[in-house]
User: Which sequence fits this backbone?
């Protein structure tokens, strides 16, 4: 159905074609949409023979080397605190309190929080959420150990325009607000809440600033290591849990073995759901849950089984990961500028390697305003509309902001030739 709708959108203009290609390749599972994909391997990643791609033996060596060491994990840095732990985990400017008092709101200014915490937004937000939710006491977590872990987690986020620790802080905070929905009160255990906040914080650690498809097309060692399946998401999980193995970072030391295994399973299931190609299946599951709630005829969500609970948690982290268009327009604009710059840098690299430039990654062939309207209409709005039905009336303000933002971008779409109309007019003259 989405494929059909996007084909109509593509017919409207050249930029519409670009947007529809991007949405299909990013948010639809390849197995459902593309029976086969032929990839031309650039010369840079071919083997010494001019007759073909890298030999199997070289591929096997690369895979063995990748397995021996988790790429991206670096030497741990010492924590930057001395003695007693500051109110927000690290020393911050006094003015930060105004913004930290808004952590229960949808859309606090995470960029301002990052400035006032001296680039430690992920640490101060996650630390504060643990404190507010009483997780330190519930799980006997040492504050200094959590701070050490968070500082090293930040250190392992790369300096990307978009996929950085500020984005992770934003997702963790958004998860917190989604968990506060009255309809979901008493649904999740304390351990599930702990895992959900943690999953938001770690979900993009060591992101290289390129998409899964780019890593696959360029024969990146991560794609080899994870067999082209949710490459980035599996890597984020590996790095996050590898950091926990250091004794100075293991803030879960006082959990029982059973609790640790449960925690790990929840986090893995949630972070794997941030693979955007899973969007359609997550949306379908959410719609099924809404229908079940309507049939029950009450406003209570009953989640007795793990599969039911994890479906909601997976939907929540997906919502949080796609929450930029639902935030105040000033924040949305900044996030949008950042993701576009990251896409364009990928396009520059693809051009350099002789790869086909991915949709939305060509600097000279993107209408940003139209792309955002298409993104909202076909991806974000259906997702948030379904969520709003599930937790009604709690998310109506989020939906309202999303619709306002959509109109803001719609009103700024530059005029361009209507390709469909031009073809019709030409046909009439034949």
Assistant:
């Amino acid at each position: 159905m989405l494929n059909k709708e996007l084909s109509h959108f593509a017919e409207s203009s050249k930029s519409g074609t670009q947007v529809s290609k991007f949405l299909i390749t990013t948010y639809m599972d390849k197995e459902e949409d593309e029976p086969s994909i032929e990839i031309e391997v650039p010369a840079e990643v071919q083997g010494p023979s001019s007759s073909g791609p890298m030999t199997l033996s070289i591929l096997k060596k690369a895979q063995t080397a990748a397995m021996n060491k988790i790429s991206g994990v670096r030497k741990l840095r010492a924590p930057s605190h001395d003695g007693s732990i500051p109110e927000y985990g690290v020393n911050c400017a006094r003015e930060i309190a105004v913004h930290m008092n808004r952590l229960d709101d949808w859309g606090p200014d995470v960029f301002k929080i990052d400035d006032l915490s001296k680039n430690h937004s992920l640490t101060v937000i996650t630390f504060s959420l643990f404190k507010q939710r009483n997780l330190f006491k519930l799980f006997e977590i040492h504050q200094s150990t959590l701070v050490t872990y968070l500082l090293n987690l930040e250190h392992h986020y790369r300096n990307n325009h978009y996929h950085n620790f500020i984005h992770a802080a934003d997702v963790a905070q958004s998860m917190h607000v989604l968990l506060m929905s009255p309809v979901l009160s008493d649904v999740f255990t304390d351990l599930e809440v702990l895992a959900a906040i943690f999953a938001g914080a770690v979900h993009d650690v060591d992101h290289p600033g390129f998409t899964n498809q780019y890593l696959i097309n360029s024969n990146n060692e991560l794609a080899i290591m994870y067999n082209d399946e949710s490459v980035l998401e599996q890597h984020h999980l590996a790095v996050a849990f590898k950091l926990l193995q250091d004794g100075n970072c293991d803030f879960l030391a006082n959990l029982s073995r059973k609790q640790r295994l449960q925690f790990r399973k929840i986090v893995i299931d949630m972070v794997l759901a941030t693979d955007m190609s899973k969007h359609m299946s997550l949306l379908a599951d959410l719609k099924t849950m809404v229908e079940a709630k309507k049939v029950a005829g009450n406003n209570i969500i009953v989640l007795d089984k793990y599969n039911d609970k994890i479906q909601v948690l997976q939907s929540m982290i997906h919502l949080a990961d796609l929450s930029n268009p639902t935030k105040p327009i000033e924040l949305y604009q900044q996030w949008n500028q950042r993701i576009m710059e990251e896409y364009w840098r990928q396009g520059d690299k693809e051009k350099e390697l002789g790869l086909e430039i991915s949709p939305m990654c060509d600097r000279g062939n993107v209408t940003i305003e139209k792309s955002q309207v298409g993104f909202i209409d076909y991806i974000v709005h259906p997702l948030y509309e379904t969520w709003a039905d599930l937790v009604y009336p709690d998310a109506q303000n989020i939906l309202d902001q999303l619709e306002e933002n959509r109109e803001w971008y719609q009103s700024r779409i530059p005029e361009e030739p209507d390709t469909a109309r031009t073809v019709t007019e030409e046909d009439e003259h034949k």
Residues 329-353 form the longest helix (25 residues). Residues 93 and 116 are 5 Å apart (CA to CA). The chain has 21 helices and no strands. The domain at 2-31+78-429 is CATH 1.10.1300.10 (Catalytic domain of cyclic nucleotide phosphodiesterase 4b2b).
